[in-house]
Design brief:
The protein contains twelve helices and seven strands. The longest helix is centred in the first third of the chain and has 18 residues. The protein has a domain of 256 residues: Glycosyltransferase, CATH 1.50.10.10. Helices cover 53% and strands 4% of the residues. With 371 residues, the chain is mainly alpha-helical. The two termini are 31 Å apart. The strands form three sheets. A three-stranded antiparallel beta sheet has the order 2-1-7. The protein has a two-stranded antiparallel ribbon with strand order 3-4. InterPro entries: 6-hairpin_glycosidase_sf. This is Squalene cyclase C-terminal domain-containing protein.
Length: 371
């Protein structure tokens, strides 16, 4: 991929791609990632150096389901609804007997139940059930939510069933699991799911510094968390706050969102990692984190009426569009979104993860719908 922008100077060398074209290209790339597995699930990523697709990834396939269902309505292309339902059917077929979802890709040697992954697939089952009223999706969602509540400690944290692929067992970004439980409470009319979600956010906020920085909020380095996991935590706090009508949660999420926005570079990218003073802790950018923060800024604008978020969103989306290759002859690259920019950066090095494309699509749909 040719250099598009100098991350330090912010000087552009080519115009950004049209948002609708970029959105469609990302959807087509995710469809190819699904087809690459042959099972209904979506390949975790494409490795551009090895030139191969990874195995199907239950966790992120789960939250791609709502994105594809939304895109089917947005675009009028029913293919994406059909693909989303196939994903949900696959997720139900491989759900573990206790209701949980395994860690890692489908080709990992051992199926280990994991909190975070179960929460992410819960989003998909809920959305598929609401779209189809197919009882198997409701049953999968109920069993997953019940398992999550049973696994939670009294103080609201999840300390058991951590991912074996993360360095830390206790994480504040599990508020994104709380977000899924809050949605389950609404969809399934079960108040105890919202109670569990609120307890988890309260536990997470007990670890928040006065400036909004959260402890225990990274996959590997808690002193310099990724914008990816910062955004996971922030979105969870925000959405649980909105569902529970808890203004303190919403205010806390806004505090984080403002701090991250202040770290945005002139070209629209965020540093891939930030330290406890919200200073840049990497020269590369985490493209997934850029998209996730664009979603959060737009959700805050919609819910609070603060339109000052708009230019920050536009810069982030414009940057992400500018580094998406929509003309590559290689279909495994065309329309995909790299984990880092430059692609050799410290997150998902030389890989195109499916979750980057998912959040990229979500951020663009929000912007295009807002007009």
């Amino acid at each position: 991929m040719s250099a598009v922008t100098n991350l330090l100077s912010g000087r552009w060398t080519r115009p950004a791609v049209d948002a609708r074209r970029g959105l469609q290209a990302a959807a087509e790339w995710l469809a190819r990632a699904q087809d690459a597995t042959g099972c209904g699930g979506v390949s975790a990523y494409y490795d551009a150096v090895k030139r191969q697709w990874a195995g199907a990834y239950p966790e992120t396939t789960g939250y791609i389901i709502p994105t594809f269902l939304r895109y089917a309505e947005f675009s009028g292309q029913s293919e994406y609804r059909e693909r989303a339902i196939r994903m949900a059917e696959w997720e139900s077929a491989i759900q573990l007997p206790d209701g949980s979802v395994r860690a890692g890709t489908l080709d990992t040697t051992q199926a280990v139940p994991t909190i975070f992954n179960t929460g992410q697939v819960l989003f998909g089952w809920l959305c598929a059930w609401q779209q189809t009223r197919d009882a198997r999706f409701r049953d999968s969602a109920l069993r997953a939510a019940d398992w999550l509540v049973a696994a939670q400690d009294p103080d609201g944290a999840w300390r058991r069933f951590a991912s074996p692929f993360a360095a830390h067992a206790v994480n504040t970004y599990n508020t994104r699991v709380a977000f899924a439980l809050a949605e389950a409470s609404c969809a399934l009319q079960e108040p105890r799911y919202l109670d569990a979600a609120v307890r988890n956010v309260q536990w997470a906020l007990a670890q928040m510094h006065p400036n909004g920085w959260l402890e225990n909020n990274d996959l590997e380095d808690n002193d310099r968390p990724l914008t990816h996991t910062i955004a996971y935590a922030t979105r969870g706090i925000l959405e649980v706050g909105l569902i529970a009508a808890n203004s303190a949660f919403v205010d806390a999420a806004a505090r984080v969102a403002r701090s991250v926005a202040q770290a945005q570079r002139r070209d629209g990218a965020l540093p891939g990692r930030l330290d406890s003073a919200w200073r840049a802790a990497s020269r590369w950018t985490c493209v997934t984190g850029n998209a996730q923060m664009a979603i959060i800024w737009q959700r805050l604008a919609a819910e609070t009426g603060e339109h000052a978020w708009k230019p920050v969103v536009e810069r982030a989306n414009r940057f992400n569009l500018s580094i998406q290759d929509v003309t590559a002859t290689d279909g495994a690259v065309r329309g995909g979104v790299p984990g880092s920019y430059p692609r050799s950066g410290g997150y998902m090095k030389n890989r195109y993860p499916n979750w980057a494309a998912k959040f990229f699509m979500d951020a663009l749909m929000l912007q295009l719908e807002a007009g």
